[in-house]
Design a protein that fits this description.
Bound molecules: adenosine-3',5'-cyclic-monophosphate
Strand content: 15-25%
Shape: globular
Number of strands: 4
Length: about 140
């Protein structure tokens, strides 16, 4: 079953949007297989966002994602990686359609509420950075 890594960023947690965001993915039909409220250590933030290391906003990005608690999650379901990205909306909330998470709740590209893996390779890498195998549940034996 396809899995993705999603994370409510510090702005989303601060604005009490965890419940709304979780509800959207539950109602869509995806299954939550792992979740934790946590503060991200700087080294983990730098590794998670490693592909943006040369970007001018890298420092700002790391400062922001480590500025307060995040809600890290693993979700599973058919096409969950691409569908979750659609449900999140464009990276820059000014371009995100109404009805998407960023379209409904965000204004600026830095504080864009949620992160989601953009490919199967990213999902595998990001899940591995944030979760141990034993922290993920298995629904496959449910009747
Ligand atoms: P995310 O999906 O978490 O992946 C990388 C993040 O970089 C992206 O969301 C944005 O929040 C952030 N980002 C992209 N462009 C800029 C920018 N110009 N200034 C600050 N942050 C940015």
């Amino acid at each position: 079953m396809e899995k993705t890594f999603l994370m409510v960023k510090p702005d989303g947690v601060q604005r009490s949007l965890i419940g709304d965001i979780v509800a959207r993915f539950e109602k869509k039909g995806f299954q939550l297989v792992g979740a934790k409220l946590m503060s991200i250590p700087t080294e983990l933030a730098e590794e998670h966002y490693g592909e943006h290391k040369e970007r001018p906003f890298f420092g700002e990005l790391v400062d922001f994602i480590t500025s307060g608690p995040v809600f890290a999650m693993v979700w599973q379901g058919e096409n969950v990686i691409a569908t979750a990205r659609q449900m999140m909306g464009s990276t820059n909330p000014k371009d995100a359609a109404p009805g998407t998470i960023r379209g409904d709740f965000g204004i600026t590209v830095g504080k864009n509420i949620i992160h989601g893996s953009d490919s199967p390779a990213s999902a595998e890498r990001e899940i591995g950075l944030f979760f141990k195998e034993a922290e993920l549940v298995d629904y496959s034996k449910l009747a």
